[in-house]
Amino acid sequence: MKYAYYPGCSLHSTGIEYNMSTLAVAKKLNVELEEIPDWNCCGASAGHTTNHLLGLALPARNLAIAEKQGLDVMAPCASCYNRMKTAEVAVKSSPEIRAKVAEITEMDYAGNSGVKSALEVFLKEVGLEKIKASLVRNLGGMKVAAYYGCLLVRPNGIGMDDPEDPMTMDDMITALGGEAVQWPFKTECCGASLPTARSKVGLKMVNDILQMADISGVDAIVTACPLCFVNLDMRQNDLNKKAGGNFNIPIFYFTELLAIALGEKPGKVGVKKHFVSTAQVLDKYNLK
Amino acid sequence: MRKVGVFVCHCGSNIAGTVDVEKVAQEAAKFPNVVFATDYKYMCSEPGQQVIKDAIKEHNLDRVVVASCSPRMHEPTFRRCIQTGGLNPYLLEMANIREHCSWVHPDKAKGTVKAIDLVRKAAAKVVKNEPLQKSSINITKRALVIGGGIAGIQVALDIADAGFPVTIVEKEPTIGGRMAQIDKTFPTLDCSACILTPKMVDAAQHPNIEIISYAEVDKVEGYVGNFDITIRKKARSVDMNKCTGCGTCWEKCPTKVDSEFDMQLGKRKAIYTPFPQAVPNKPVIDREHCLKFKTGKCGICEKVCPTGAVDFTMEDELITQQYGAIVVATGFDQFDHSVYGEYGYGKYPDVITGLHFERLVNASGPTMGKIKRPSDHKVPETVVFIKCVGSRDEAKGKTYCSRTCCMYTAKHATLMAEKVKGSKSYIFYMDVRTPGKGYEEFYKRTQGEYGAQYIRGRVSKVYPKGDKLVVRGEDSLLGRPVEIEADMVVLASAMVARSDAGDLARTLGISYDKDNFFTEAHPKLRPVETHTAGVFLAGACQGPKDIPDSVAQAGAAAAKAIGLLAKSQMETEATVSQVDESRCSGCLLCKSICPYKAIDVKIIAERVGGKTVERQVASVNKSLCQGCGACTVACRAGSLNLLGFTNEQILAEVEAVCL
Question: Of A51, A108, B67, B124, which residue is the least packed, with the fewest Cβ within 10 Å?
Fold first, then answer.
């Protein structure tokens, strides 16, 4: 199994743990990843809010290169995935858009190479059965809330799972021997860039999610989006200081838990880089 | 040579205003076979018809063309006219120079040219017309009503009162239908059971009505006036003749099952009647759950029955009976809201539907009429109602409006206010539609006197928080998001066709729409007939309807059925399909395509090479054929011909206009 790998900007910067753990999981599961040569920004937010066509052309260029490689793309970042999938669907459904995009990028992307999220590649293509067979240890009943955010599951036709009650990560948690806590805020908005741009509005959104997780009695939250991760992980300190919160909920990328269960050392997949310490919970469930 | 007369009508100025009618008559006189042509101010009037009759005699005409309005308007008039003039009525052709010409073309010169063409076409066709005869069939004076809800009961009572025997076939163990589940009826708030159960009893006691409950229509053969219906009486496991309905069996039965009648909110036994006022008030055994059928042990009901009515060996019974008319009144199902993830995919116990609420508020329901929410039986104080769940939603539900939800939601909010003092109802709506007598006033009262708060907007999410349900939506009048912490959420789920409606439609040979509702013959002018002669529709099986509309439609359907049964014989159309057996290969493509089940197989014997050979050919039942012509198009050998519209006649028309 081989994919063209699109890390995007986050996995080289704020989401470096996601990159480390994704590569570790790929290695464990024999998924070969070949980084797209000369890849460019997926255009998230800035691109498509400026100009619709620009928002399609930027990801389409990356897809066109992957098409030349003859590979489907794996994009772990939820936003990269969403932008690339949007471009894929648009080009497939309209010859006009395909022609326009080809003119802009000077590359004809025909829609033969598609994009998959890391969730799809690891949990659906490789599959939970094979993962279960390769497990070195299990989560020992760790209570984990799966948090999907918005971009992975919306809009209809683009999203990779049910937009109201996605289960992909929940099923993984169960397969790894954890307890997938059912909570109502799986797809709430994390505020995206609002905690930075308009912190009053944005922090409340983060606060609501963390509070619901707390009420639901979780040990940790697992996510598959670098921006969700940053908001949930980094903002806990802010909330505790500014809003009198008392949060201490470790946040994981799904690949981190997966890599650990597959036998990787936690330190190797970046869990020590988090703002909220993961040491306690990993200790509690013997996952050092 | 044929002798054709052409009669051009002015229709006052309707035609003469934009068509030079005199010129049309002059030109018509020059057409082949036309021996006489004239024009007249009103051809359909008494003196106008006399012009035609006189000309038939004077010029010895054997074919007539009337150039006037649409045949839909006056073909019967002119057919009668030439019949009294001594001709077979089918030797008439009409050229529609009004609807198809003068009314739609403002240019008189061009209009006249077109009118001449239309007359030329009719004159060419009429030459090929042959005398046709209508046939007649006897009528079985008995009606079948499928479905024993309020619509079916009303149909049966009306037909029975007119003196004809009626059979009601009901698939549940009792008649009563949806109305029996409902607590109060809008806009008067009278008790549903109080007005329904007397009608159920009337039906049961009527000398002309036979109720076959726990039964389904298995097979329909025959045609209007003479349907052969096979009814499957499902095995009740209880002998109806011996059972007295004493109830000892269901009191002693140890197996409890979720009650369908109570929307799974209450329990029934494995041997049961759905509710205490059931008609017939005799139980059935639910073999799926009965211990005797599952394990072979138990049999308590058999032991305690004082009359020995329980019979575990009973089997389905098929009975065949002839009927003259069929009325379909199979009602509706409730939309399954589990496709709505934002409302919890049907997983939250306190997110219920309108029918659940009816059972919760009903005095004979699982909570004895005390409104308690399903999860913990607490009395809800804050209730959110969400309208248009499954209705008016192209993405997840149906495109149509279910018509009843605005009113029943207003009723529910009123009942909440009356039954739980100090409670608060919030109603999310898209539009409030109250087109019925007293409906708008009821809605205003719900808002004003009963204090229900209407919020215009959709709900985006319902989620549990502690023992509350948080309802998050938009108030689109304020342009703001709203959040309400509710104890219970009631969804106004759409009315949808019965899940097996398509199967029944195919059994009956009637058509149904994209949503599986049965289709009426004309949406305005033939609302209770189907395209299949002798089959009528009543109630929500034709489309969402409330009780007043269902009852009104039931009366209309009954009148149509009575009209049919009151005749001793029935005339059938003369313009029917005909098989040229010598050319028919017996492929029977026509049989599969015929919407009226009018084509059947026939075995004929032929002499081939000195031997008698048997082979199959198509055969048209003249009583059933409606003359649609679909078979003539499908026939690969061209052996089917529609009388009055034969291939030769149509080709003559085409040649007259195009060559």
Answer: A51
